[in-house]
Specification:
Layout lengths: L3 E7 L2 E8 L6 E5 L10 H9 L3 E5 L18 H14 L5 E6 L1 H12 L4 E7 L4 H10 L1 H6 L2 H5 L4 H16 L7 H11 L4 H12 L19 E6 L7 H6 L8 E6 L6 H4 L1 H13 L1
Parallel strand pairs: 3-4, 3-5, 5-6, 6-7, 7-8
Antiparallel strand pairs: 1-2, 2-4
Helix pairs in contact: 1-12, 2-3
Length: 284
């Protein structure tokens, strides 16, 4: 099956989205992270569509063919959440199953909190509950070391210089061997356009504190929807403690799935397991 391309209006911006599956099926919205795009969900879009649901993966604001506001504050979490709500409504739906990876996962957590009436289920990849991540970053030396890169990303101008020098060598290296070369080149080429790398970095700058990084995000996130966290035990950025502590902040139906031997780019490394987890969420 081949995903179709859509340009939709949401929250005052234009968003490009990939979509596949029957219009009458359950809707699943798939949110990507840094430094990716909608194509990071290509295999899951196909899997979901073949299972009889409508899969929609937008380029988040600042990415791909979606609009890229110029101010740092334009990337605050509340704006990102309302983008998702607007995209769901643009497809004619009052609610959807919500999934996210990396920053898309963070947006998904807050969306489920702020729009429980629109969240049928929540599937988050790599990133645990915001309070669990903040606690781990504050108390766990292992997580502090894994999160050191955030300090660079918060430095306006400096981060852009470091990530773009030598033909974006460091940006490419972030993906390691897990992501196909063609996908890496697509993501990097998109971010070489004027202002686009800064837009991606503004997700960090608009929401995180320089003194206590994750303290910039509200922690009292409450999720009523059935929730699954998929975490790779070889993730270089997000350690075990934040994944295991997530359960302490959940009051409803919750499951942690540890993907042994997997790293950060789970849609590429473990496409079948991610697709299966999403289909299970839809069928409940």
């Amino acid at each position: 099956m081949t995903a179709s391309q859509h340009m939709v209006q949401a929250n005052g911006l234009r968003f490009r989205a990939m979509a596949d599956g029957p219009a009458s099926g359950e809707m699943v919205i798939l949110l990507h992270g840094f430094p990716e795009g909608a194509e990071s969900w290509s295999k899951q879009i196909d899997s979901i569509a073949r299972g009889g649901a409508l899969a929609v993966a937008p380029d988040m604001r600042g990415y791909g063919l979606s609009d890229a506001p110029s101010e740092v504050d334009d990337y605050r979490i509340d704006h990102l959440v309302e983008d998702v709500a607007g995209i769901v409504r643009a497809f004619g739906r009052p609610s959807a199953h919500v999934a996210g990876h990396d920053w898309g996962a963070m947006v998904a957590w807050f969306f489920a909190d702020q729009h429980p009436e629109m969240t049928k289920s929540l599937t988050v990849l790599s990133v645990g509950h915001p309070a669990a991540l903040a606690e781990a970053t504050n108390q766990d030396e292992d997580q502090k070391e894994r999160s050191r890169y955030v300090g660079l990303f918060l430095l306006e101008g400096k981060a852009e210089h470091v990530l773009s020098e030598d033909d974006f060598r460091r940006l490419r290296r972030m993906f390691g061997e897990a992501v196909p070369r063609g996908a890496i080149e697509h993501f990097v080429r998109s971010l070489t356009r004027p202002g686009r790398l800064t837009a991606g970095l503004n997700y960090y700058r608009a929401n995180l504190s320089r003194d206590n990084w994750w303290a910039g995000l509200r922690r009292d996130v409450k999720v009523n929807a059935p929730t699954t966290l998929l975490w790779g035990d070889q993730d270089p950025a997000l350690g075990r403690l934040q994944a295991e502590k997530t359960g302490e902040y959940m009051t409803g139906d919750y499951r942690l799935e540890v993907l042994e031997g997997a790293g950060h780019w789970l849609q590429f490394e473990r496409p079948d397991e991610v697709g299966l987890s999403l289909r299970k969420a839809i069928s409940k």
